[in-house]
Specification:
It is built from ten helices and no strands. It is mainly α. The radius of gyration is 18 Å and the shape is globular. It has one domain: Ferritin (Up-down Bundle).
Length: 270
């Protein structure tokens, strides 16, 4: 039987979109079924690729080269859904990557439960958004996308605290800030399915940010570090720009992110 880190590495090495989705669902189901009944799957210590294998499409462009579209138009809505689908597709890899890359660090078993659960959620989110694209006679890969999430991940490949700070606690937390306005856009045009799917994604992303906060604080405690000061130091080291308000303070609080963690990062370091 494959170890969990071998499963994670296998997903990361898979370029085909549908195969990656299939494996992510299969492996997460295997993990939780085993946890419930047997506990036979070991964590292991698989070799993790530096970056995941990429599908041929979408074409990846620098963020500044991305085409500009009016959000209120049909083409703008397709582009918005496509961009969120791309984020969710990358998040599948990011959550399996944290298992494959840092799984050897001897965490409590709930660490692995949390990130397998997050990967399973992101897989579902990608499938929901893919349905919305198909309903609009489009598909994932039909439009270009950018790779800035993996740019942020790559520079934290050797720093678990940095990875937790930048990916779930900054990038995914930003999703909590912007998703309500996306939902309102589709509410105004009476698109019930899009509203339903985005609300599912919105509610479950709170858990993913909370996993980041939970394990960041755990590691700070294990290493006798001040969590707030360490977060500020790592975000300034790896994120290379200030955080931009407005912030969804309610959902950030639900995720374990108090205001004194992120508001000081809206200004350059004195």
């Amino acid at each position: 039987m494959k170890s969990l880190t071998h499963m994670a590495a296998n997903i990361l090495k898979t370029a085909n979109v549908q195969t990656k989705i299939k494996l992510s669902k299969e492996y997460s189901d295997m993990w939780f079924d085993d946890r419930k009944n047997f506990n036979r799957i070991s964590i292991g210590n698989a070799a993790c690729p530096d970056i995941p294998s990429k599908p041929n499409k979408p074409e990846l462009l620098p963020p500044r080269s991305m085409p500009k579209r009016k959000i209120g138009t049909e083409s703008g809505k397709i582009a918005l859904i496509h961009s969120v689908a791309h984020i969710e597709f990358n998040a599948i890899d990011l959550h399996w990557d944290i298992i494959a890359r840092f799984g050897h660090m001897k965490f409590p078993i709930s660490f692995y439960d949390d990130w397998v659960s997050a990967a399973r959620d992101e897989t579902k989110h990608f499938e929901l958004l893919s349905r919305l694209l198909i309903d609009r006679e489009s598909y994932y890969g039909a439009l270009p996308a950018h790779d800035s999430m993996w740019d942020a991940a790559k520079i934290t490949n050797n720093d678990i605290l940095g990875r937790l700070a930048v990916v779930p606690m900054v990038l995914e937390a930003r999703g909590l800030d912007v998703t309500p306005n996306m939902i309102k856009l589709f509410e105004r045009s009476g698109e019930k399915k899009a509203v339903e799917y985005l609300n599912i994604i919105y509610s479950e992303e709170v858990s993913h940010v909370s996993y980041g906060s939970k394990w960041f604080n755990f590691l700070c405690g294990r290493n006798n570090l001040d969590p707030k000061l360490t977060f500020h130091k790592l975000v300034r080291k790896y994120f290379h720009t200030t955080l931009k308000p407005p912030f969804n303070e309610e959902k950030r609080a639900d995720s374990g992110l108090p205001p004194d963690f992120y508001w000081p990062l809206t200004e350059n370091e004195p």
